[in-house]
């Protein structure tokens, strides 16, 4: 059974940084799975934040609102995908979810204060 477990969320002041991690288990071959980070702010729809392919295709995708501030990366040896978030803004406040084509994590909460 494929499972995704996020960690690294928390409370941070505007301008600060956080690094989210997502550990995957149950994959036949993690390195062959594209991975994504989504977020859902209170009262808003879930949105795609960043996406990383298997490494053989195009470079990572970023939502316009986070491009230049967030970086998605993966360590296939650790079955882990990361989201480095810099220069955080109050509008980045949301629950962040890790996702593969066939599974979602439970989410980790990020709160950015002004």
Features:
114 residues; mainly beta; seven-stranded mixed sheet; four-stranded antiparallel sheet
Output the helix-strand order.
Answer: EEEEEEEEEEE
List low-pLDDT spans. Answer: none
Average the pLDDT over all residues and give the rounded result.
Answer: 95
Helix content: under 10%
Count of strand segments: 11
Distance between the termini: 40 Å
Q: The biggest beta sheet, please?
A: 7 strands, mixed
Proportion of residues in β-strands: over 45%
* Structural category: mainly beta
Radius of gyration: 13 Å
- Helix tally equals 0
Q: What overall geometry do the principal axes of the alpha carbons give?
A: globular
3D architecture notes:
- With 114 residues, the protein is an all-beta fold.
- The protein has strands at 3-7, 10-13, 18-25, 35-40, 47-52, 61-62, 70-75, 80-85, 94-100, 103-104, 108-113.
- Strands 2, 4, 5, 6, 9, 10 and 11 form a seven-stranded mixed β-sheet that branches.
- A hairpin with an 8-residue loop joins strand 5 (47-52) and strand 6 (61-62).
Please give the structural blueprint.
Layout: E1 3-7, E2 10-13, E3 18-25, E4 35-40, E5 47-52, E6 61-62, E7 70-75, E8 80-85, E9 94-100, E10 103-104, E11 108-113
Parallel strand pairs: 2-11
Antiparallel strand pairs: 1-3, 3-8, 4-5, 4-9, 5-6, 7-8, 9-10, 9-11
Task: Put the structure in a nutshell.
This protein is mostly beta strands. Helix content is 0%, strand content 51%. The termini are far apart.
